[in-house]
Amino acid sequence: MLAFVKTFGCQLNVADGEKIKSQLVNIGYELTDIPEIADLILFNTCAVRENAENRVFGHIGRAKYFKERNKNLIIGLCGCMANEPETIEKLKAHYSCVDIIFGTSAISKLPEMLADIKKNKYNEEYFELNTETDEGLGQVRESKYKASVPIMYGCNNFCTYCIVPYVRGRERSREVGKILEEITELVSKGYKEIMLLGQNVNSYAYDFPLLLKKINDIQGDFWVRFMSSHPKDCSKELIDTVAECGKICKHIHLPVQSGSNDVLKRMNRNYTREKYFEIIDYAKKKIPEVAFTSDIIVGFPNETEEDFLNTLEVIEKVRYNNIYNFIYSKRSGTKAADYLDSITHKEKTERMARLIALQQKISLENNGLLVGKTVKVLVEENNIGRTEGMIMVELDKTIEEGNIVEVKITGQKSIYLKGEVI
Q1: Whole-angstrom Cα distance, residue 110 to residue 117?
Q2: Euclidean distance between CA atoms 329 and 163, whole angstroms
Q3: Element (H, E) at 384
């Protein structure tokens, strides 16, 4: 039996996809990258933006034709979209080809669900949100040297634009011992980059800075990243820990979302631009080489030109290495979905273009500052690697992927750097 699993969305979804694949392998499936020949097709979905959901429906429509040729094909939808009541109703009404729907908390029940489907049985409990963390689920890792390790699930913040608390539930943190055990095993297998994941990692219930220190004490040659951090919980203690621990990348992903205090208040972000600047200034003082990345929403309902200029001002002052920018996407069920919006789509796209142009200029300038310096690089495929600050570097010689090497930066070309391996 062949199974095809396609994952959409964030790194947490990718980690869930790896667990899904492990469950399938354990019950006798082989994995394939070709949906046309699969006996099982699973779409592991994202609900953060409307565009992501539309892509999923497009893929389901294509899979329907595969089922016409293979009557025994099982098609399933899981992930965040499966915890949206409207999505479930739409699937039942218009996509009868979908045999199974299960939410983010039901991965461990996948073998049972598939057995039920083959007996023409189905159970609505698979939509329910869990209040615990699943331990003991294996993962079919996408990479042999980079591994994602969720440390918590869910979110308590209820930003007015965000569907995540509704589809992933309240915050649940994994035990320190379980996390350390998993990372120790990964390092023993040769993994070089450990990415700690959570909707808001720095609200980890058992002291996030202390967890980082314990991970830093694990023997081995590896480095650690974490995302995403919420500015309201980004403490001086956390920044001090990043500064002190040699294995923690000097890179902080700190989503600002907007540079306008009015917009931040309507987003329910619980910090001001002034508070955000305090965090940035403290981090730059404690970690001179620190690199920042961020998420920014353009065109939040009734965002004024002044609001937008305040966002550009934040980009200018912080000088991010990179930003992940999105035009606001209305999500049914969130508070912001009821906000009046006077901004046209044309205005939003024009603002997005201005924001992208500014960030590209800053990224190039930041890259230029590294020319002549020596940095650590994790080697990826085709002699391309990434610095701790997530900047791509083209290497001058062939190095086996998965190695962390010292590289002298000799120049820059467009969005990436060029370097000589020392």
Answers
A1: 10
A2: 11
A3: strand 384-387
Report pLDDT digits (tens) over 235-267: 999 999 999 999 999 999 999 999 999 999 999
Angstrom distance (rounded) from CA 295 to CA 325: 6
Of residues 229, 257, 255, the one with CA closest to residue 242: 229
> Checking phi first, is residue 85 left (phi over 0); if not, alpha (psi -120 to 50) or beta?
alpha
Q: Which residues contact 159 (CB under 8 A, 6 or more apart)?
A: 257, 267, 268, 269
Measured in whole angstroms, how far is the alpha carbon of residue 12 from the centre of its chain? 6
What DSSP element (H or E) covers 227? strand 223-227
What is the reported pLDDT for 115?
A: 87
The closest alpha carbon to 110, from 142, 86, 85, 74, belongs to: 74
The model carries a pTM of 0.92
Task: Classify strands 291-298 and 322-327 as parallel, antiparallel or unpaired.
Answer: parallel
Rounded (10°) angle between helices 176-188 and 208-216:
30
Please write down the long-range contacts of 91-98, taking CB distance under 8 Å and 24 or more positions apart: 95/57, 95/60, 95/61, 95/64, 97/60, 97/63, 97/64, 97/67, 98/60
- Residue 125: its pLDDT value, please? 47
pLDDT tens digits, one per residue of 40-82: 999 999 998 888 899 999 999 999 999 988 988 999 999 999 8
The pLDDT tens digits for 367-397 are 999 999 999 999 998 899 999 999 999 999 9
Candidates 256, 271, 331; CA nearest to 301 is: 331
Please tell me whether residue 403 adopts helix, strand or coil conformation: coil
Give percent of the chain with pLDDT exceeding 90.
Answer: 77
**DSSP state at residue 223:** E
